[in-house]
Amino acid sequence: MSTVNGAAHKPKVNGKTPHGVEPAPAPRLALSVKRVEEGESIIVRFLSDEYGGCITHYIRKRSEYCAGEKCRYQCHKERKYWKGYAPVEVNIDGTNKWRPYVLELTEHLELDLRGIVRRGQVWRIYRLHPVEGEKQPVSAERRPDQQWSSLTPPFDVLPVVRQLYHEFELVLNKKNPLPPRIVITDAEADAPVKIEADYCGPEMPIEQREAILALRRERKSIREIMDATGLPGEIVRSLIAYEEAVHTKMLADGKV
Ligand SMILES: [Zn+2]
Question: pTM value?
């Protein structure tokens, strides 16, 4: 079990260890914020079902706290971003050691966790490197549940977040304004009618297309083609427009 403001002590005799050698003191680590960077993947254990959030502005490459009506920033009316903070422990290199952190939640990450995350659950939190220059969101993937021999009590994240923003009136009472994800499933139905692979005109069976073009070659009007085929004018017109565009392009390319 890791501790927050409650260091564990080894038994000592007259201020010395049983071997008579004063061990190097364990490094004093301060609780800090964990932000998942590009190309990083971590395993975390959530210590609480709940997390708090606040609204921020992104100014000069950093997030600044928006205090709502008391907001001090010129860009207050511009885009705002929600940031959340949750008490977690980050696993150290797959060992049995878990270090407490205040995990920063982005809007996208919160959508992955929303309604699911509970105390004691393990999640992988990761962010891919940019793909074709486009930044990738922080994402979460749930790991199998475990029976814990011990589970650290949740701790208050507020002092750490206040320090992070250097805002001592900061409160974490805002919910992520993004609407929930809409979960979809694929439908099973009939496959679409096959048409020639290289054809990019209006979608229709190939027989229908040939029939329209044959009538067009006979210099029939659109009305006559509609009557002969029983197809709506919209389809007849869009096929003819497509064929004419292809013909014009071929003329321009010297292929006709
Ligand atoms: Zn603001």
Answer: 0.68
